[in-house]
Amino acid sequence: MSRIVGHCLAVTLFASTATAWAADPAAESLFEEAMTLMQQGQFADACPKLRASQKIEPKSGTLMVLASCHEQEGKIATAWAEYKEAVGLARSEGRQDYADKATALATGIAPKLSRLRLEPAAGAAPAAMAITIDGAAVDGAALGTALPVDPGEHLVQASAPGRISWSNKVLVGPAADLQTVQIPELAVDPRATQAQPSKAATVQAPAAPVADAEPTEAAVAPWAWVVGSIGVACVVTSVVLRVDQSSASSSIDDRCGSARDACPLDYDFQPDRSREQRDFGLFVGLGAAGLAGIGAAVVGIATSLASPASHTAAQPWQLAPLVGRDLGGVAVSGAY
After folding, report:
1. Coil, strand, or helix at residue 115?
2. Is the Cβ–Cβ distance between 11 and 65 less than 8 Å?
3. What per-residue confidence (pLDDT) applies to 89?
4. For the chain, what are the domain ranges?
5. Averaged pLDDT for residues 132-144
6. pLDDT, averaged across the chain
7. In Å, what is the CA distance from 110 to each residue of 24, 79, 88, 149, 175?
8. Strand stretches in 71-161, DSSP E
9. Hey, CA dihedral for 208, 209, 210, 211, is it positive or negative?
10. CA-based nearest residue to 24, from 71, 56, 51
11. Relative to the CA of 78, which of 116, 167, 190, 326 has its CA 20 to 30 Å away?
12. CA 95 to CA 280: how far, in whole Å?
């Protein structure tokens, strides 16, 4: 308890100044409640209140007290990052004394940092992977680097288009522990390979021969089977994209909250947001094109089976892709 009290006394100057600067009543009230809880050693309850006060009214003094709270809670990496952030914030406020103090505090706990290193296996294709630690994206350039993390259990996940996702839990100890996680090559997902649409630009069916005599039963036009197959492939692909878009949305919501207004400082949500928007646009476009293709194929098959007359030779059926920014489709031309 004496160590806790001593640490609280060390941040009293910043606490009192932060309160003096507070202009928002809600921020000040939250800060005062947090200080009372810290003095009682209730850091798990105090830290969220300090974070809320800092969100309402960002101040370097409040941020240093929050870092101190996390340090006492055992979240050394979080505290270290907050001390480092407080340096820049203090300088923008013109408080070089605060900047110097935050620098000294960050330097003091740096030797205690525990770290987690991610090592991709040979052939793992890290450039195509999306790797996260507890839902936070890890930049490809950071692979192989010992990253500061708070002590405790962490979830490492890896995913890539057309691959089966992988995950692993790792326990990182306190007091400068170092853990290494090997990320294997992701196995190919057979469902994704089956969902790839045909890339043929134009498919031409042979011209129907001229009938010498009236046939006894009608044959289904070849274009109907081709258009129907492409339509099914488009629908399957749109479903895969919708699943991937849902995964990107969940990653952002898990890190930033349902309102997406509480993203951690070390989390760049732009890659997941771009992936979310891209997948949704392709899902809508391919889904619409696929349903249109299936509908056209059904009409063509029904028409062919209902008509006993043979089609005379005419312009061959041709399929040409329609490409737009977010939508795709197929154009059918010919005579019957």
Report:
1. strand
2. yes
3. 96
4. 2-111, 114-187, 195-333
5. 91
6. 79
7. 33, 10, 18, 12, 10
8. 114-120, 130-133, 136-137, 146-149, 152-159
9. negative
10. 56
11. 167
12. 46
Contact 193, 161 (CB under 8 A): no
* Helix, coil or strand: residue 241: helix
Residue 168 corresponds to which amino acid? N
Q: Copy the structure tokens of residue 328.
A: 């795709």
Q: Are both 2-111 and 114-187 of the same fold?
A: no
Of the listed ranges 155-159, 160-164, 179-183, the one predicted with least confidence = 160-164
Q: How far, in Å, CA of 167 to CA of 158, rounded?
A: 6
Cα–Cα distance for residue pair 118/180, rounded to 1 Å: 6
Find which of 16-25, 238-247, 319-328 is predicted with most confidence, using mean pLDDT: 238-247
Residues 6+ apart with CB under 8 A from 247: 159
Q: Which CATH number fits domain 114-187: 2.60.40, 3.30.70, 1.10.390, 2.60.120?
A: 2.60.40
Residue bearing the bigger pLDDT, 173 or 228: 173
Percent of the chain with pLDDT over 70: 74
The correct CATH number of 2-111 out of 3.40.50.10300, 1.20.1270.360, 1.25.40.10, 3.40.50.2300 is: 1.25.40.10
Is 60 exceeded by the pLDDT of residue 317?
Answer: no
Residue type, 7: H
105/108 Cα distance (integer angstroms):
5
Which has the closest alpha carbon to 183: 161, 167, 163? 167
Rounded to two decimals, the pTM is 0.53
